Amino acid sequence: MKKDRATRRDVLKTAMAASAAIFPLPGFFPSPALAQAAKGRVVVIGGGFGGATCARALKRADAKLAVTLVEPNRVYTACPMSNAAIAGLRYLTLQEFRYNRIAAEGIEMVYAPAETIDSAARAVTVGGGQRLEYDRLVLAPGIDFLWDALPGYSREAAASMPHAWTGGDQIALLTRQIASMDDGGVVVISVPVTPARCPPAPYERASLIAHMLKTRKPRSKVIVLDAKDEFTMQRQFQSAWKQLYPGVLEYVSLSDGGVVTSVEAATRTVTTDFDKYTPAVANIIPRQIAGQLSGIAAVADRTGWCPVDPITFESRLQPNIHVIGDAAIAGAMPRSASAAMSQAKICAAAVATLLAGNSPSTPTLTSSCFSLVAPDYAISQSGQYRPAGDVYTEVEGSAGISPVDAPRELRAKEARDAEAWFFTTTTEVFG
Ligand SMILES: Cc1cc2nc3c(=O)[nH]c(=O)nc-3n(C[C@H](O)[C@H](O)[C@H](O)COP(=O)(O)OP(=O)(O)OC[C@H]3O[C@@H](n4cnc5c(N)ncnc54)[C@H](O)[C@@H]3O)c2cc1C
Question: Where are the beta strands (DSSP E) in 96-233?
Fold first, then answer.
């Protein structure tokens, strides 16, 4: 591996402000102000944290609603805590969830991809040709990748240089690659600019891989190549890295030449402005946009993300279509499972209220986020959000963050809280 970092600082100067990374707490469930019971057909597309939560919340808001959830996969692989699985600290099967309990609540499950949306006729066509008519449509398609943004990277290249940013197969592939890597091997993680899904997750991943290497492959190291100079909870992460992973985790920022400019899958080469790396494992996280379905529904704007009304999450571009979760533009709210769930509940309440002919009220979201740095060491952020204009802004004075110099007992408690959060959340969505 060639590596020469002399003279690179100050060459690249474009600083990227990392997104706030605060996840709404589970349990916030606004009730719709229904003057009368709503009747109507609601189709929800995407059975992830956003869509599955929304389908359930709709049915619970009004049992008379006919709710259909469209999702191609019978098994959903959750990304939160997947970094622990990738680092061999957790079984991947603990990340897998099915839809039986959701179906048992009277929600019709359609296991097929949504393929076309006719907003004038208010109808969706799914793979296999089934046509689903709706009064209101909720889209929660998650993210897609800007495949063309990184020369050499493609769906095919991801089969050897996984992103592991969506999908069980990708997470399993990266897990296998790291487990089978020889001691002395190098793992490179390429981190994109924001906006992106879960801004702290690349640094959590780097931390947990570093923990795994330190304990099981002590001659190995992980190098983070970042397209940004700043990232969320940076002081907390970097102070922990200094303490826990000196010589194991190397961080290269934008200003130090961290931007990956091309990759070559055949030789597993990762090129930056100054270096060429040929690591044993290359985890390439590409730039992101809203899930492909948002293009089909014509709800994404030129940014590639979906502008919405923050009170109802109705699209600014298409009437009667709501967009929630990672695909939506929600201002200061991060793209996280917790945010997706909070938006889902607000959207469900708003849809039920609108179908009953009433006006939804303005919500406040309470938020909390954990990132594991080691199995017994986590950091967190919390805050509240209110709609302001077209997006959400953080309520002044509501932000909380783990102190940089917290004692290890607090870090250990936050690690237990992170595990509890995952259990509570996934039970609420799928259990
Ligand atoms: C490594 C990592 C760690 C993370 N850790 C955390 C964490 O600790 N806490 C946290 O809050 N968040 C975390 N996140 C973020 C979280 O996973 C996402 O923000 C969350 O999954 C977004 O939910 P969503 O419903 O918008 O999208 P998704 O959960 O991705 O669900 C989208 C669903 O839509 C389906 N779909 C797509 N297209 C179609 C179509 N045409 N027809 C039908 N269905 C379709 C997909 O199959 C998928 O099931 C993490 C993310 C990553 C990558």
Answer: 96-97, 108-110, 114-118, 123-126, 131-133, 136-139, 143-145, 186-191, 221-226
Omega cis (within 30) before 195: yes
- Residue nearest atom 27 of ligand 1, based on CA coordinates: 142
Long-range Cβ pairs for the range 12-16 (8 Å, 24+)? 12/254, 12/255, 12/257, 12/259, 12/273, 13/255, 14/254, 15/228, 15/229, 15/230, 15/254, 15/255, 16/193, 16/194, 16/227, 16/228, 16/229, 16/230, 16/254
Distance (Å) from CA 224 to ligand 1 centroid: 23
CA of 185 to the centre of ligand 1 (A): 30
Separation of alpha carbons 327 and 200, rounded Å: 18
Cα of 245 vs centre of ligand 1, distance in Å, is 29
**What is the Å distance from ligand 1's center to 197 Cα?**
8
Q: What's the 3-state SS for 298-348?
A: CCCCCCCCEEECCCCCEECCCCCEEECHHHEECCCCCCCHHHHHHHHHHHH
SS3 230: coil
CA dihedral 215, 407, 20, 192 (to 10 degrees): -20
The helices-and-strands tally (H runs, E runs) of the chain is 9, 25
pLDDT tens-digit series, residues 167-211: 999 999 999 999 999 999 999 999 999 999 999 999 999 999 999
| 113 touches ligand 1 (CB under 6 Å) | yes
Is the shortest distance between the CB of 337 and ligand 1 below 6 Å? yes
Per-residue pLDDT tens digits for 395-409:
999 888 999 999 999
**In the prediction, which pLDDT does 38 show?**
56
CA of 426 to the centre of ligand 1 (A): 12
Best mutation site among 109, 130, 197 for ligand 1 pocket (most ligand atoms within 8 Å of CB): 197
Which atom of ligand 1 is found nearest the CA of 369?
A: 9
Report the nearest atom of ligand 1 relative to the CA of 296.
41
Closest protein CA for atom 17 of ligand 1: 79
